[in-house]
Amino acid sequence: MTQYGPQAAHWPYPCWIAHRGAGKLAPENTMAAFRLGAEHGFAMFECDVKLSADGEPFLLHDNELDRTTNGQGVAGVLKWDALSRLDAGSWHGRTYAGEPLLRLEALSRWLQALGLMVNLEIKPTPGEEVRTGRIVAQHVARLWAQSQIKPLLSSFSVDALHAAQEAQPELPRALLLDKWVRDAVDQAQSLGCQALVVNQTQLDADRIELGHAVGLKMLTYTVNDASRASTLWLAGLDGLITDRVDLFEPQARLGANPAQLMYVAEEFIA
User: What values do phi and psi take at 159, rounded to 5?
Assistant: First the structure.
C-alpha cells in the first residue's frame, strides 16, 4: 500500500469536485451553478478568481468578458461597480438571464453556511500575477477566518502561488499543470504546496506515485468519462474535477471514489 507523507493526514477535502460550480449545466462560476452543483450532491467546487481594477476578487475564468457575459474586453481593467451590472447568465440560456458575476465574499458566505468546500484557482489578469495572488490570499484568510477547513488555493502561475504563500503561508496550495514537466514535484514542494492538480491526459499511476512519495495529494481535471475516472481512481488518484455532476452524482453523494468503496467492501468481507 502507498505510504503518504505527513501532509496527507491533514487533507480534509472530498474526492469529487464540481468544475466551475456545476460544470456545463448552468452558467459557470455563478451562484446558480453552485446551487445546482450542491443539488447534485457535490460538497466541493472548483472556480476561478481574479481581481477587478479596484481590487475586488470575483469569479471569472476568461481574461475577457465576451464569452460568458454581455460585456466586452479585458475584465480586470473594470472596477467592480461596472462588473457587477453585467449579465453573466443569458449566454447559457433564458432561464439564467440576469445572473450576475459573483464576488468571492458572497460565495464564501454561501459555502460556509452550508458547510461546503472550494478549490479557488487564482486566475490573474496578465501582468497582475503577484498582486492577484497576494490579495486573493488575504481575502481568503479574512473571509474563512472562522472556518476550520480553508479553501485550497491553486494556480498555473508560479508567481501568483508564491505571492499567496508569502501573504498567507498557512493556507493550503496546489500547483496546476496543463502539461507534465520533469520537475513538477520539485516545483510543488518549493511552493509549499499540498497537492498537484494535473490535466487528466497527463496523469498516470507512475506520476501519481511520484507525488505520493513526497506527501503530495494528486488531483486531476477535467474528467467527464466514467471509464477514465475509474482508471485514475484505481491508480491512486486523490481528487477529480468534473463537469459531469449529473453522471457522477451518486458517487459524490456517497463522498467516496470507486477504489475506496472497493477497499471498504473487501475489508468488511474479510
Answer: -65, -40
Predicted model pTM: 0.93
Is 61 known to be catalytic?
Answer: yes
Q: What is the pLDDT of residues 100-128, one digit of tens each?
A: 999 999 999 999 999 999 999 999 999 99
Percent over 70 (pLDDT), the chain: 93
Told to judge if 139 belongs to the known catalytic residues of this protein, a careful annotator would answer no
Considering the candidates 10, 61, 139, 212, report the single residue annotated as catalytic: 61
For the chain, which residues make up each domain, given as ranges? 6-269
In 3D space, the residue among 52, 82, 57 whose CA is nearest the CA of residue 70 turns out to be 82
Residue in this structure with the C-alpha cell 474526492, named with its chain if needed: 15
The pLDDT of residue 115:
97
The CA-atom distances, in angstroms, between 168 and each of 163, 172, 173, 192, 243 are: 9, 9, 10, 12, 30
For domain 6-269, is the CATH number 3.40.640.10?
no
Q: Active site residue: 19, 40, 92, 162, which one? A: 19
Mean pLDDT for the chain overall: 93
